[in-house]
Amino acid sequence: MAPTQEAAPAENPASKGDQTRQKVLEAAHVLFLRQGFHGTSMRQIAASSGLALAGIYNHFADKDALFTAVLDAYHPYRDLLAALETDTGETKAEYFRTLIKRVREILKKVRTDLLPLAFMDVVEFQGRHLRAMVGEIAPKFLQTLPTVMRKSGKLNVADIRQVYLILFANILGYMVVRLILGDRLSELFGGISEEQWFDTQMEVCLRGLTAPKGQGALAGPKRRAA
């Protein structure tokens, strides 16, 4: 008789509280996108999620806390941090090239409505929530600097922090154009796909960041003495 296989342990189902919280996040997400933050009331979110108003306040202190939770839930920064902290490539250029490939795979999975949420924060809150998020994750980005600096090869920019900012600006530009053009990118630009455009944009960026052999790195402006 063949040995019986033990059943794999079932994953712990989400608690009722977690399920309720998720319903609120989904309802708030839809309403914020449709009506804006200030145009959406907590009572509307409660009705859309099928909860009593008091039930929402068991999970979120106020509408501001709920918006923060929605932005956090739909933002891919945890995946981006994991990609950043994965140490691959013997040279600096190889490291950033591999990092860009990982970022592209993450962005392909990102919902297209993430950027409208971010713009909503910029317009209605002057970017307060996004600044808080960046303030939380920036130190984790900077922790990778010693590892990258020890890699061989030279970049055209001596300060690796500036390299991260340049890559961030290029990725943000990609997302903005993606939001504006949407499905019409290929139609308006002769069949160019999002993937082709992203790869070309980042390749041009990398060529500009990579220093030719024998060329020193750009030091950048000197800091003023305090």
Explain how this protein is built:
The protein is an all-alpha fold and 226 residues long. The chain has 2 domains: 17-70, Orthogonal Bundle (Arc Repressor Mutant, subunit A); 75-209. It is 65% helix and 0% strand. It has 12 helices and no strands. Helix 1 (16-35) packs across helix 4, helix 6 runs antiparallel to helix 12 and helix 10 packs antiparallel against helix 12. The protein is globular and about 65 Å long.
Total helices: the number is 12
The rough form would be described as: globular
Total E-strand runs: 0
The N- and C-terminal alpha carbons lie at a distance of 81 Å
Structure classification: mainly alpha
Largest sheet, if any?
none
The residue ranges in which pLDDT falls below 50 over 5 or more consecutive positions are 1-10
Question: What are the salient characteristics of this protein?
Answer:
disordered N terminus, globular, single chain, 226 residues
Could you give a short description of this structure?
The protein is mainly α and 226 residues long. The protein has helices spanning 16-35, 42-49, 53-57, 63-74, 77-85, 92-109, 114-125, 128-142, 145-149, 160-181, 185-188, 194-209.
Fold topology:
Layout lengths: L15 H20 L6 H8 L3 H5 L5 H12 L2 H9 L6 H18 L4 H12 L2 H15 L2 H5 L10 H22 L3 H4 L5 H16 L17
